[in-house]
Specification:
Layout (H helix, E strand, L loop, with lengths): L1 H33 L2 E13 L2 E6 L5 E4 L12 E9 L4 E9 L9
Length: 109
């Protein structure tokens, strides 16, 4: 009987240690990826590029691939201001808010 109790406790400790280690690894991965992201605002035109949508920045004509295409699809061809999170590792945007601009709001810098 003592062996069964001891084996049960040992198994519980091993499982707990493994779960804690895995959770710490996931937290580290999330922190590492968040260091490559930053909030940004881009003004430009929404373009279709193959299967992806991109926002072409008015300032320097840089193109940012949009990760969540459903947020931008209806604005294809329009001049917009996009608020979102820039993922610097692959220069993609996760769009939070889209505001359609009038054509006279187009400012080249």
């Amino acid at each position: 009987m003592k062996n069964v109790i001891f084996a049960t406790i040992a198994l519980a400790l091993i499982c707990t240690a493994g779960a804690v280690a895995q959770d710490q690894h996931q937290d580290h991965d999330q922190q590492a990826s968040s260091h490559h992201d930053k909030k940004t605002t881009v003004r430009g035109y929404v373009r279709k590029d193959g299967d992806n949508y991109v926002v072409e920045d008015d300032r320097d004509k840089s193109r940012y691939r949009v990760q969540n295409t459903e947020a931008i699809r209806e604005h294809e061809g329009h001049h917009v201001q996009v608020n979102g999170r820039l993922h610097e590792d692959d220069r993609s945007l996760e769009v939070n808010k889209v505001k359609r601009l009038k054509d006279d709001d187009h400012h080249d810098h």
